[in-house]
Structures are given as C-alpha cells and as structure tokens.
Design brief:
Blueprint lengths: L3 E4 L4 H10 L7 E4 L11 E4 L5 H7 L5 E4 L9 H21 L4 E7 L23 H20 L2 E7 L1 E2 L6 H6 E2 L1 H13 L5 E6 L11 H5 L12 H9 L14 H4 L10
Parallel strand pairs: 1-2, 1-4, 2-3, 4-5, 5-6, 6-9, 7-8
Helix pairs in contact: 2-3, 3-4
Bound molecules: D-galactaro-1,5-lactone.
D-galactaro-1,5-lactone binds next to loops.
Length: 268
C-alpha cells in the first residue's frame, strides 16, 4: 500500500491520524475543504469538496488506499448531511472505483446503532438502529462500501467508531472509547489484510464496560492495546460535569438519541 489518501484530514480525528499514519505510509496525501492550520512542509494536502464528483475523481488518481473520514461528523440539517455524507460518500466510492483504488476504510460511527439499549450487548449482526440523520448517513456509507466491495471488487472495512481521544471523557465513553493508536491498528487491517472483501467492526479499545461484541475485529487480527478501565477516574470526573440526560442514558447513542426526541417513551 504505497499511496494512501486521508479525507477529513483537518478535523479532530484526522489531525491525530495524519501524524500517526505518515510514518507508516510516507506518501500519505491529505484532503479536506481547507488545509490544517499546522500543515508541515513534508505533508501533501489537496483541497477538495466531497460533493464535487470531478474533484473526487482527480483526488483519487493514482491512489492505492483511502481512509475516508471526511464528511459531517455530528448531527446536522438534512441538506448538510445529504451533500457531505450521502452525495459526498457516493462520489468518493465512485471515484475510487473509476480510478482502480484497491482499499477503502470507511469511518462509520456508533450512531448507526445508537437506539440499541445500553443493557444489550450487540454484535455486527444486530439490526441497525440509527439515532440521527448523521447515523443514518453512516449506515448509507456502510451500504455503499458493501455494494462497491461485492459488485466492483474494492476491499472495504467499515469501522463503527466509538469516541476517539486520549482518554474516555465520561461514563458513556468508557464503553466506546477508541485510543488513536488502536484506531490505526484497525485502519491497517482495512488497508493491508490480504483477501479482505467487506467487513464491519466496532471501533473501540479494550473496554471492560463495552456494549459491543467485537469478535470479528479480533478474528481479523485486531489486538487493542488501550483499556478504558485504566482511565476510570478521568471518565467519572467528566461524568460529574455532564448535564443529566435520563433518556439518553438508556441508549448507546446518548445525547444523539435524546436530541429532537418527541416519541412517547412509555410506549417503547
Ligand atoms: C461520533 O460519531 C462523532 O463523530 C463524535 O463527534 C462523537 O460524538 C462520537 O460519535 C460519540 O458518540 O462520542
């Protein structure tokens, strides 16, 4: 895997990843709407809008593998999600197909499954229950990955990312925390594991309080190194500052579930 493209490179997760991926993939190409403020002289950046199909086609020329973080990363208005995450993701996969890219690692999200309850342990076979328009758009991206893998021969890994950071920031994140180096380990499986067709994994570290059965990731060779239990005090300190959200606390997606919620909760 020589030429790797990282989309969404100027965002929070992208900024961490570009530093961690560069030593592994020296020809790493970064893309986003705008360059990161601290772009280094040895980094290569190409500005491109995911919603612009021609720009995506040019961006994917001579690329071997893509780590697709780009798009809108929280809940937003439908038009924004539509352009960045639905049309944009389709443009990305279509450009990858036309340019003969071999692998795509798709940054999906835990919010594909957000309305599963926290007292359930779910695997990758569980029915998707998106908690937002954002989560729904990530489910569409996973579907695109499956289609382009099975129909067009791309190797695709969808990672349902929990929460990326140096530490879990509250009680919910103790269950879904993903330390950045563990994310890199998953990305490497997506880019490099021989014979990979289409796989879905949960993007979490070794979290004792996890709601997800991540056995497929382990079967693919993932060995998470970080343990959220080692950061219990920091997470609980963060939790103490978090406003109460009894409805969100029932569900894996947390506040993504409680925002805009107007169902009769007693009926479910
Ligand atoms: C996500 O998918 C978001 O991109 C991120 O900003 C966090 O909110 C994360 O989920 C989470 O659930 O903590």
């Amino acid at each position: 895997m020589r030429r790797v493209l990282l989309t969404g490179a100027s965002g929070g997760v992208g900024s961490r990843l570009r530093r961690l991926l560069k030593p592994l993939y020296p020809e790493l190409i970064l893309s986003d709407l705008k360059p990161p403020a601290d772009l280094a002289p040895d980094e290569r950046f190409i500005a491109a809008d995911l919603a612009d199909a021609d720009a995506m086609l040019r961006l994917c020329e001579n690329i071997d593998g893509i780590v697709h973080l780009g798009g809108y990363s929280i809940e937003g208005p439908w038009e924004t999600i539509l352009q960045a995450n639905i049309i944009g993701c389709h443009n990305l996969f279509e450009a990858a197909r036309k340019q003969g890219v071999r692998r795509v690692v798709f940054a999906s999200s835990n919010h594909v499954m957000g309305f599963h309850r926290r007292d359930a342990k779910i695997g990758i076979e569980a029915v998707p229950l998106p908690d937002t328009r954002y989560g729904l758009s990530k489910l569409f991206g996973e579907g695109l990955g499956a289609l382009y893998a099975h129909k067009h021969g791309l190797g695709v890994l969808s990672i349902r990312i929990g929460n990326v950071g140096d530490e879990p920031i509250d009680q919910r994140r103790l269950a879904i925390w993903l330390e950045p180096n563990d994310l890199v380990a998953l990305i490497r499986i997506g880019l490099e594991k021989p014979d990979l067709v289409y796989e879905v994994v949960y993007g979490m570290s070794d979290n004792a309080s996890a709601w997800w059965d991540n056995r497929r990731a382990l079967e693919l060779g993932y060995k998470p190194q970080a343990r959220s239990a080692d950061h219990l005090a920091a997470a609980m300190a963060g939790q103490a500052k978090t406003p109460p959200d009894p409805l969100g606390d029932l569900y894996q997606g947390g506040t993504f579930c409680s925002q805009e919620y107007d169902a009769d909760q007693k009926a479910r």
